[in-house]
Amino acid sequence: MVSADLTQTASGVPSKGGSNVPLATAGLLLGMLLSVLDQTVVAIALPDIAADLGGMDAIGWIITAYVLASTATGALYGRISDRFGRRAVFVTAVAVFVAGSALCGLAQTMPQLIAARTVQGIGAGALFVLPTIALSELYPRHLRSRVQGFTGGVFALASVGGPLAGGGITDAWGWRWIFYINLPLGLLSMALAAFAVRLPKSGGDGKVDLAGAALITGAIVALLLVAEWGGRTYAWSSGVILALIGALAVLAALFVWWERRAASPLLPLRLFTDPTLRVVLPATALLGALLGGSIVYLPTYLQAAYGMGATQAGLALNPYVLTFMAVSSLAGARIGASGRFKPYLIAGAVLAVLGFTLLSRLEPGTAYALLAVEIGVLGAGFGLLMQNLVVVAQNAASPADLAATTSATVSIRGLGLSLGVAVFGNLLTRGLQDRAPSPAATAAAIPDVLFWGVPAAVVLVALMVLLPQPVNHPT
Fold first, then answer.
1. DSSP state at residue 125
2. Among 160, 162, 194, 254, which is most buried by a count of CB atoms within 10 Å?
3. Mean pLDDT for the chain?
4. Which of 1-15, 323-337, 460-474 has the weakest average pLDDT?
């Protein structure tokens, strides 16, 4: 049955406000898939890239530049799309992403590749935020959980499948094709969105808060560099790290000061007065950190402990991915029917505690079948949490604040994910300091690192218990 919010075209295709909903959904999800894939697909090709271009000392910046650019610009796109429309901004962002991908494939030096990855990341900043906003507008409220559940599945599939795809493409055609493959897929996403997405502008002729965007971008870059460099590239007491911490404090204070005065703020501070958002936003950051730590270091553990190659490790994570996708989809459907989020969110956080507890007790010789069950538990927890937190935030927002709220939630999760990767990486580096480098040492250290997910997940349980019943604003 077609919802009252959707009409039926002569051809029988659902539409809303002139949008072709199925094709719009396909175009938006394809863009989302590309943005997440390019966070992970490159990792497996780094040795080939370094062998071809040189610059091994800067190779980490191939990933870092992309993450910094996409995370720092994510919050801006919601407000820009209020001003210029979801379709126009999404199509433009995909075009920037595609251009950056082409430049990556053509790069002849490491600095050229890093610069091209930055361009690619600037476009990618929109490719998770804007679909999350647009899908909530294309579908009626009672279908939000189900639809956003699909986006959680896309995230899980792309996050874990990225290294697998990257390995296959690199082995078959060379590393440049992990970027060239984005061109036809990106163009298809653009064509589908340009044809099918028809959503009204919701921000009138208000100005875009460029000053706020510059301040928050600078603060995010400083924070991520502290997490990435602190204790590894530079000592915590070094001038570089202390200067970055000082810059972070100053930029954050200036951002808050400016947002209180801006006519059309990038991040309206009134959002933080809502009791639901005061819980959801920190919970989302914490969830992002747990996602980042598990997505990056579980494949490493599989390779170190079981002697798997990258492709085998990707396939071995299927229990995590499939459980995540199945639970996200099924829970979204049930929540959409009942409107009761809190029990599912609490259950997800408890499963996350259980999953990290089990993984922290891994020992040499643990059977893969047992590990598969444990990562399936973790995937189920994340499937209950990830996109349902976004929907709770969206339901608590007024229509005027929908884009700002969604942008804030998705961007904070992305920031948490980046911080989680960096913090867990720091913990792993410390755990390996007194051990001779070897796969066995890495396999022994990773469970100790994953143990730190337990207290973080316990805090997540407490936040879900404290989550008030949100006041649903009319759409």
1. T
2. 160
3. 83
4. 1-15
- Give the pLDDT confidence score for residue 408 in this predicted structure: 83
Superfamily of the domain at 15-205: MFS general substrate transporter like domains (1.20.1250.20)
**Which pLDDT value is given to residue 56?**
61
Would you say residue 475 has pLDDT above 60?
A: no
List, in order, residues 6 or more apart from 7 with CB less than 8 Å away.
Answer: 14, 15, 16
Residue 99: C-alpha distances to residues 40, 116, 125, 235, 289 (Å): 19, 9, 14, 37, 30
Distance CA 97, CA 89 (A): 12
Alpha helices by DSSP H, listed for 107-209, are 110-124, 126-138, 144-173, 177-180, 182-196
Helix axis angle for 21-40 and 86-106, nearest 10°, is 40
Q: Work out the angle at residue 310's Cα, subtended by the Cα atoms of residues 307 and 315, and round it to the nearest 5 degrees.
A: 95
Place of tokens 């989809």: 329
Q: Which of 22-26, 91-95, 382-386 has the highest mean pLDDT?
A: 91-95
pLDDT tens digit sequence for 118-141: 999 999 989 988 998 888 888 887
Answering whether pTM is above 0.90, one says no
Phi and psi at 340, nearest 5°, equal -100, 100
**Quick one: which H or E segment has residue 353?**
helix 342-359
Alpha-carbon gap, residue 164 to 171, rounded angstroms: 11
